[in-house]
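Here is a typical sample entry:
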Amino acid sequence: MIVKRLNLSFPVGVPNNNLSHDILIISYLFNLCTKMILQELSIQIPNKYIEFVEKLNSDQMIAFNTIMNVINHKERVVFC
């Protein structure tokens, strides 16, 4: 189980109970996700990759536009 592997310690004054443990885990995972998102946003995309959009077939263009619409509207969607 991932919770046991994290081996997080409680700050001084925080009670060591299930609720505190859950909050600590959620905080840790939130900070981890935030860090990963910031890393992804800092990636520079070379122009040659942007130019590849023009070469997509119709199915690929539909998928690309769907993803870009979600990003541009700042929606939260999971693609399967």
